C-alpha cells in the first residue's frame, strides 16, 4: 500500500517557516520574515522520539495506541503570524506545575528540581537586568562619543568624547571649559584655525558628512541584516505581548543590529531618541535568555510575562527610572500583567538601573544626561501656565500623530517606500544643513533637554543664563533672584523659537524611517523648548510687573519666584503625554528624573490636561495609530465597543458563504482530512459528532493535525489514505483487513469556548480581550453554527468605525 507523506502541507514545510520569497509589509518597508532565530518553531532533535507500539486488535487487525501517549515534536506550537491560545498555554503551565509539585514529594532530587524551577524566574530577571543595563551603558557611551566626533577629535585619544578629553587637560579654565588644547575641531586639524568663514564652512561640511555617513551605515545595516531593527519597536512589542507571533522580531540578529544602528542613528543628529528602541533591545535580551529555561522556552504565555518585565527594564535604563519603567510596562505595553510579573519587573528594573549606575556612562554619577534638581517652590497661581502647557502638549500630540500617520501612509502607498536608503539620506542632509547654524539644534537632543531643564546658577555660562547684573541684597545658597534678561537671553529665545518649529516639522518625517528611532526624546525636546520660552516670559513678567494682582503677595522684588527650568520639565511631560497618552507612568518617570516630590502636582496637572485635549482631538496614541496603520491583530483594551450587534452578525460562514468546514469525530479518512486541509487555509477545525447533527465535540488546530498525521505516516506501518481518524475516547472495532486507524483525541481541545448566536458582540469582544482567545465557536441549541476569530472582530470593529476592514493584514 502507498504510504507517502502528506503532500499539500508537510511537517518539514511547517518547520522551515516561510521561504525567502515570502515578504510581508511592516512599517512601510518590504521585509523578509524568513528568519526564525527568535523561537525555533519545533524541536529538531528527534533522536529521543520513542516509536509508537502496536498490538493486535480483536480481529487480528493492528491497532494504533493513542498517538499522543508520547509527545510529538511540534504539536502545541504555533506558526509565524498567528495568535497564541492564552487559555491553552496557561493550562499547560498549570499541568506542568502540578506535575512538579506532585513529584517533589517523592524524592530529594525532585524537590531540588522544584526549588530550581521556582527560582528560575528570578534568575532570568537578574540576567535580563544585567544584560540590558550593560548594553544601555555601551550605547550611551558610544552615542556620546560619536556625536562629538562630528565636531572634532581628541588628540590624547580619539576614543575620548569632548567632555572627557577636556577633563584630562590642566589648561582648561572654568569660563571656557568647553575649549581645551587637547580637543581640536575639524577646521583646526585641516586648515589650522577655528576662526574665519573658511573654518566655519569646513566645520559645517564635516558635520554634514559625518551625519550622512552615520545614517547611511545605520540604514544599510538594517536593510541588509535585520529589517526588524527599524523604528521604535514599541507598537510591535505591544502586539507580541497581546499574543501575536512575529518570529525573528526579538532574535539575536535583531538585537545585534539594533544596538549598533541605534548608536549610529542617534549620532547622526536625526530628530530621534534611543529610549523607545531601548525597550526593544531589552525585550530582545529577555527573549534570547528565555531559551536557557525550559518552562519559558516551551510556553508562549510564560515568555510574554518575561517580555513584560523586559519592557520595564528598557524604560528603567532609558530614563534611569526603575519605578516609572514598571508602571510604563503596566500602563502602556503589557496585555497580561499578573502580580507576580509586577514583582519580577521591579526586581529586573532595579538590577538594570544598578548595572547602568555602575557603568556610569555620563561620568556624573547619574543614570541620565539631563538629571536636574530645582530648589524654589512653585506657587498655586503657576498652575495656569502649567495647564496652558498641557493644552499645547495635547494639541501638538494630536497634530503630530495625524501628520506622522499621513506621512507613513504615503510612504507605504507610493514609490517613496521603495527607496528607504535615499529617504534616510535626504532627511539626514536636510536635518544637518538646517541644524548646524543654530547651536540649540546642533547639539544632541539629550544635551538640549539638559540645558533647558537647567536651573540657572552663579556659575552657569550658558546663553540662557546670561542675565543682566543687578545689585542683589541677599542671595540664597541654592537659587538666584529673578533678574532682567540680557541680550544673550533674547538671542537664545529667538534661536529656541526657530528650534521649536524645526523640531516640530522634522520629527514628523523622521519617526518611522528605516532606522531605529525613538519618540520620547524628540517629543520632550519640543515640550521643553515651549516650556522654557514660557518660563522665561513668566520670569520677566514677574520681574517687571511684580505689583500685578497675580504676582502680589508671593513674588516680591529680589525673590526667586519663577523657575524657567521647571516650566521646561512640565512642557516636556505635556508633549510626551500628548503623543503617547501616558499618564501615571509619565509623571513617575519625570519625578524620578528630577528627584523632587513637590513638583508632582504641576506634572499631574499638565499631563492630565494634555491627555484630555489630545483625546478630544483623536482617541489614539502614536503607538496604537501605528498598530492600526500596519494592520496588526491587536484588540485595544482602552477602546469601547458601543455597537448593538450580535455574534450571528459577525460569525462565519455568512448567509452567502459555503458551509462551515468541520471534521467528524469518527467518520473521516486520512485522505478526506488531508483534502480538507489542502482546500482551506483555516487555522483550525471544529470537531462534530456528524455532519447531520452538528453537535460540537471539540476543536483541533490545523498545525497539530498536519504534524500528527505526518508523524503517524512516518512511524506507523500501514497508515494509508484510507485509514480512519478517530477523535473518540474508544476506537470501535474495525473490519478485517482494514488499515490501522489513527486516534487523535489527544490533540483535540475538548472544551473550546462557545457563545450562543444571540450573545451581544460587546460581551464577545470583552471575552476575547480578557481571555486572549484565538477563536470562539457559535452555537444554537447545542448545534454548531459558525466561528468568530480575532481577525473577524477586528474587521467588524473597523467596519463599524467606517474604516477599511481589509486593512487587517495578518491572520
Structure explained in plain terms:
The chain is α+β, with helices and mostly antiparallel strands and 811 residues long. It has 28 helices and 16 strands. Strands 7-9-10-13 form a four-stranded mixed sheet. A three-stranded mixed sheet has the order 8-11-12. A three-stranded mixed sheet has the order 14-15-16. The radius of gyration is 31 Å and the shape is elongated. Belongs to the chloride channel (TC 2.A.49) family. It is found in: Endosome membrane; Membrane.
Summary tags:
disordered N terminus, 4-stranded mixed β-sheet, 28 helices, 811 residues, 51% helix, single chain, 3-stranded mixed β-sheet, alpha+beta
Secondary structure elements and pairings:
Elements: H1 11-16, E1 23-26, E2 29-32, E3 54-56, E4 62-64, H2 86-103, H3 108-149, E5 152-154, H4 162-167, E6 183-185, H5 186-191, H6 197-225, H7 234-241, H8 252-267, H9 275-290, H10 294-297, H11 300-319, H12 322-333, H13 339-359, H14 383-413, H15 420-435, H16 439-442, H17 445-453, H18 487-510, H19 520-544, H20 564-580, H21 584-594, H22 600-617, H23 622-629, H24 647-650, E7 663-664, E8 668-669, H25 670-679, E9 684-688, E10 696-701, H26 702-715, E11 724-726, E12 742-743, E13 748-749, E14 754-756, H27 761-771, E15 775-780, E16 783-789, H28 790-800
Parallel strand pairs: 7-9, 11-12, 14-15
Antiparallel strand pairs: 1-2, 3-4, 5-6, 8-11, 9-10, 10-13, 15-16
Helix pairs in contact: 3-8, 3-9, 3-11, 3-13, 6-8, 6-15, 7-23, 8-9, 9-11, 11-12, 11-13, 12-13, 12-21, 14-18, 14-19, 14-20, 14-22, 14-23, 15-18, 17-19, 18-19, 19-20, 20-22, 21-22
